[in-house]
Amino acid sequence: MKHIFIIILIICLLPALCFAVTREAAIQYALEKSEDIKIAYQKSENMKAGARELAAFTKPQINMIGSHMEMGDNAEENPFFETPERNISASIEASQLLYAGGRIWNSLDLEKNLYNQADLIYAFEKRDIIKNVKSAFDSVLLEQALLDILKDRLMQRRNELEDAKDLRDVGMVTSLDVRQAQLNLNVTNDELKSAQASYESALINFNLAAGRQANTDLWIPEGKLDNIPDINEILEKLMQALSGENLLDINSLKTKVEASHLNYKITQGAKLPELALVSSLKSSGEKWDNTDESWNIGLQLNWNVFDGGSIRAKTASARSELNIAKENLNKTRKGIAGTVEKISIHIKSLEERILLQKQAVKLSRENYEDARGQYRAGTITLTSLGEFNLVYAETRFILQRLYFAQRDVLTQAEALLGD
């Protein structure tokens, strides 16, 4: 009989065990199979295609044209000149830009820059995916912890109801305590159902963040919220990255400043002439084996001497964009430095608060246990016992939220590092 019970227990627990997932596994899945990572890849590829298009004018240009035309008219035939019945023609033109006021090499540099920006966009999207999965994962752990506390509190309320009934039966309290204990039990049961709904909602959000469907078997985050022992190492690493400006956000804006500078030089180069090597070959006639051919090859100079001020306006616009990019970089430097400082403050504050809250949980548990014994002895009222119960629950709620806040700060720090 004992073995049968163990087998049944294993079968009941098997589904939960099968769908438990670590945070690292959820992140890996999201980075491989989620729609968000596929969209991020396409965004990156789209930008790279735009970069190639921007620099296409620096490459050889070849154009081919061919035609076959049947011809006829209603004019009288001329005995001295035979009207052709068809015209067959073909031509090929090729050109290579040799000089464009610096726009050739600047455009090639801009193409490389945009490729780097495309890679950075992909890195940003990956960072957001990782951050969202981590936050959603930790949110489930928080809701699970709060749910467990309420389950424990529900058991306490049931015990209090039994205590009230026992005391009523021996005449130490009236039915008022029994009704109040039942009311406390009902309120806690309602809170538990609300917490269960919040937990299931967080579970769905986590699965969606990981790129899974919410209408199938859901993944359940593995582990529990607890104090993070090595969080100061992450802070130190973040400080070093900030001092060396080796952060994703700063590198991205540096790349954009470089792109704006290249674009400014390209618009300036439009004032200068273009020199190109051009060539063409043309063939036309009534039959393919009897055509007239012509060809040419040489240099072509094109200089837009005056365009009504269009180039000057574009140059001024490019200069403004460059200045904006520089100011955005300076602003971001200050903003990230402020964020890192706030993270440092929060980390130190949370460490101290967690230590104090652990003591509060220990003391409130001991107070509640003593208060329950005193209630059973008839020295305190049910109302006083309820107050001790509430304090014990609230201290545990606060501790779990502090653990969650600590993880949230860690997630922010890791996101700045690009992890």
UniProtKB/TrEMBL annotation:
GO molecular function: efflux transmembrane transporter activity; porin activity
Cellular component per GO, a single term: efflux pump complex
Coiled coil: 147-198
Alphabetized UniProt keyword annotations: Cell outer membrane, Coiled coil, Membrane, Transmembrane, Transmembrane beta strand, Transport
InterPro entries the record matches: OMP_efflux (IPR003423), TolC-like (IPR051906)
Pfam families in UniProt: OEP (PF02321)
Domain of life from the UniProt record: Bacteria
Localization, UniProt: Cell outer membrane
UniProt family annotation: Belongs to the outer membrane factor (OMF) (TC 1.B.17) family.
PANTHER family: OUTER MEMBRANE PROTEIN TOLC (PTHR30026)
Protein name according to UniProt: Outer membrane efflux protein
